[in-house]
Amino acid sequence: MAFYYKPITLVAIWFALSNIIVSWDASYILARPHSFPGGKLHFIWKPYALYGTIDYVYGWPAYNEKDGFPAAQSFLTLVEAIFMSVYIYTSYFTKSPSTRLTGAFIGLIAATSCFSKTVLYMLCEYFSGYKYVGHNPLPTLVMLYLIPSAPWIFMNFYSMLAIAGQLKSALMSIPSETDKKTK
Questions:
Q1: Is the peptide bond before 33 cis (omega within 30 degrees of 0)?
Q2: What is d(CA 58, CA 24) in angstroms, rounded to the nearest whole number?
Q3: For the chain, how many structural domains are there in total?
Q4: With contact defined as beta carbons under 8 Å apart, do 52 and 123 qualify?
Q5: Could you tell me the residue range of the domain that residue 134 belongs to?
Q6: Using CA atoms, how far apart are residues 77 and 27, in angstroms rounded to an integer?
Q7: Which of 28, 39, 42, 65 is the most buried (most CB within 10 A)?
């Protein structure tokens, strides 16, 4: 009997919620400078008026320096959002065991990519001497930078482990060549 992938509800909920937020976030970066305060599209991203003063990647400093990392990571964020959508679609709206299993692998790739990219984002700050966030007092840094970023680390790490565990079960259910010869 073929392995039939059963979606992980918490992962699917996280992917759906995360997709909304990260797509909004990525579009803010990709729409700069029109998304900045005073820009013709800023009304879509009003909360970023504050966040751009906390994390300068989201403000004028990174934009004026022509730092390509924010736009590059935002582009990859949109790719991850597509992959997460594929996971949700194949998990809930397809019947084919093969398609569902492929969707699970794509979900694992999406969670791993998002986790890695978020950690990389934080490491860039650390290794640059906190270039874009070092101006903040510690309470502001914790409350408005670290805590809001934490779900993209911990929930994607959980998603990686949960999906990988299911895929391991699928792989373990495949008879080995030795098992086939003894039958």
A1: yes
A2: 13
A3: 1
A4: no
A5: 9-173
A6: 10
A7: 28
pLDDT digits (tens, 9 = 90+) for 8-28: 999 999 999 999 999 999 999
CA–CA separation, 63 vs 29, rounded Å? 9
Round to whole Å and give the CA distance between 65 and 45.
22
Q: What is the pLDDT of residues 35-72, one digit of tens each?
A: 999 999 999 999 999 999 999 999 999 999 999 999 99
pTM reported for the whole predicted model? 0.89
* E strand or H helix at 52: helix 48-54
Tell me, yes or no, whether 4 lies in a domain. no
User: What tokens does 71 get?
Assistant: 């736009």
| Number of residues written out for the chain | 183
Between the two ends of the chain, the Cα-to-Cα distance in Å is 16
What backbone torsions phi and psi does residue 60 show, to the nearest 5 degrees? -65, -35
CA distances from 82 to 28, 88, 115, 167, 172 (A): 17, 10, 15, 20, 29
Structure tokens at 47: 């909360």
Tokens representing 27 are: 């579009």
User: HSE of 5 in the Cβ direction (CA atoms, 13 Å)?
Assistant: 33
The first and second tokens of residue 5, run together, are 């992938």
Scan for tokens 């694992």, then name that residue: 108
* Angle, vertex CA 169, rays to CA 165 and CA 172, nearest 5: 135
In a domain, 113, yes or no: yes
